[in-house]
Amino acid sequence: MNDLKAQIIEQLNLQEVTPENIGNDQPLFSKEGLGLDSIDALELIVLLQQHYNIRITNPDDGPKIFHSVRSMAEYISANQTIQA
Amino acid sequence: MSEKVWIAGGGVISGIGLNLQSCLQSFRDNKPGMTAMQYLSSVHRATFPVAEVKADNATLADLARMPEDISRTALLSMIAAREAWESSGLGDISQYRVAFVSGNTVGGMDKTEDFFTEYLKNPSGGRLRQVVHHECGSITELVADMLGVRHHLATISTACSSGANALMYGSRLIKSNQVDVVIAGGTDALTRFTLNGFNTLMILDQQACRPFDETRTGLNLGEGAGYVVMVSDSLAAQIQPWCRLSGFGNANDAYHQTASSPDGTGNYLAMKAALDRSGLQPQQIGYINLHGTGTQNNDVAEGLAIDKLFAPSFPLVSSTKSFTGHTLGASGGIEAVFSALSVKEGIVYPNARFMHQMKEIPFAPETQFSTGHNFQHVMSNSFGFGGNCSSLIFSKA
Amino acid sequence: MNIYINGTGCVSPQLTAQGGPLLGTLKEYEQVRLAVVDPDYKQWIDLKQIRRMSRIVKMGVAAANLSLESAGLSTPDAIITGTAYGCLDDTGVFLTKMVNQQEEMLTPTAFIQSTHNTVAGQIALLLQCHGYNNTFVHRGFSFENALVDAILILGEGSAENILVGGMDEITNHSHQILSRFGIYKKAPVKTMDLLNSPEPGTIAGEGAAFLTLSNTKGPGCTTMLTGVSTLYKPLWEGEVIGHIVKFLESNNCTPEDIDLLVTGRNGDIDQDEMYEEVAAALFPDHPEACFKHLCGEYPTATAFGTWMANALIAEQTVPEAAMFYGNPPEKINKILLYNHHQGTHHSFILLSHVE
Q: Do B202 and A37 touch (CB under 8 A)?
């Protein structure tokens, strides 16, 4: 999950945030969590496509999948196709 | 000083016609302009329908009497601006103090994209003539130079409300006696840049869009240009003007970089400001040409704002973007012409493909073309990225 | 009606964002591309928002905030910006990825931030300002159009305080491409020698400058914006001279009433000739100050010029680094700022001192 956190930080250009700052279950989108917004959700969709070859076509699926780093990781392992 | 600002004529080129009359015929025949891409070259050609102007650049250049290798944005602008001028019956343009105020968002991006393909391979690659008119303002000048307008030039870029804001600025120029005549509106050509940009936002519909329908899933991009000719009282007395621009409102949603606030705060403020400026009550508006893009978020925000302002009695409404697609910087200009003509001739434009009532609002768009309405006042909405919301009101003399 | 400049803010290649006397510490360069001196943007923008902002957005937001602070205002009634090139950096990022990735796997952030109204929209968002919001993008008239819009709105009385600004940024791509048009010097030149350079070409610049305009005079106000005019593609210098005479007349003054001429000389021997002609015809004995050796050439450089002219009136003195011809006037009541951009876009801004 640390790799995933680093990828999120890079994709979203989160300044002064390190992977250690992000809890596995910390909500990514609520104010108490990282406070991400709808543009970030679209960025994360591209992240999944780029790094894990997973395509999300309906942006409404975002909130469920991107609830926390753990929910993202679970979604990735459930949906990742084997890559060369 | 001019008390009032009059609309003396208008011109439109869009995905449903190369001039205003042919656009009207498409509304009458219920023939929207969305098709598979024919002129724009993109890997998404088979995925997203678009409302292209049905002519290649060579044909447009002939119509515009301009060179074929300049930006399509300028060709479209020239064709509609000249139609607008000629419809006004004002004659020789050089006898007036004239301003050309044009909105656009892409400038010469269609040519810059081609340039960049070569330039990225090699920094000295690409022909410079492809980027010389990249700037939005350069598009305006190409057309102004052709028209013979020198007195005042301005280009406005406030995303999807650019064309509407051009009419506002034009109105101020006339009222303050800076000029006698303003040609105001907007232009935008389809480009890969905007197509891919809207695709990243996941708000492009893979079918023909369904504005104000419960099942809507996004917008279709379009292209075109639309201009009105605005004149002062003294010039209006010499011709038969269509109607007046009686009011306008401009507000910022200040909610999000691209999305509308859930309750349409900026939309409400812009419409309210337009009503206040024209001294009207909501029930005096006969028809609203909606912003109506077809995205989930845009339509619910606009719908709720209209509900808040107009309930319990609603004017007739429709989104002509269901025919022309979303023409971005041109839309405010194109829809200003449609709205001005609506007041003049009592026209209501159809909202194509409406089937399912939106659950958030108590009113529905008109689905049939109709004439013979006796409208005193018609509103045109244009809301865009950056929170830029604008609303115009056209009124009978 | 009088229009007062109640506050100003500027981010530029000079140390203009930190306060203190005008050009108190002069920044001198020897290069053909000047970059702004970045203030600490975090004093105005929190980390969550700053992460998506390109330089032009940050410098615009900073200059807007400085202008409001100096006017003692938290939120204006309207925000109007002028930018010729818009958000070039994000445009270049999105365009490059689009070409290199063959239109696949693109992300929204650069596209969203590439629109020309991004700066005005971000300022509105940060200030929660729901008022009038507009962006002009007309080459060398972008800032001037924004000023005209503001003057007309103040005149009709639909707003009391308007934030007006001009900004443009240089990027690697834009500099590379503009250089190919041959508009810059072939070799680096010392900025303090630029205006006497015997060759064609100028130096590239960038920056953001804002004014807070109002129809009521604020406590720190020293200057009125008396008039703005533009002239597109004059046929010859006589047309420019005639236009200036008429412009001054319409503002009830003559060349004799001008205490200081501020011109947009940029060190390009071909382009500066127009300033020579105008000065010789109308202002032969007038002191002249310049600003593009301080900020570089760009289409909205007149925003910097206006910011500087306001400071000259406020301080009633002209720093040596800004003087071009003659001696600083003893009293600066009226300044005429005359600029042309590439010989096609001429603009005239008249500022007057208020007690």
A: no
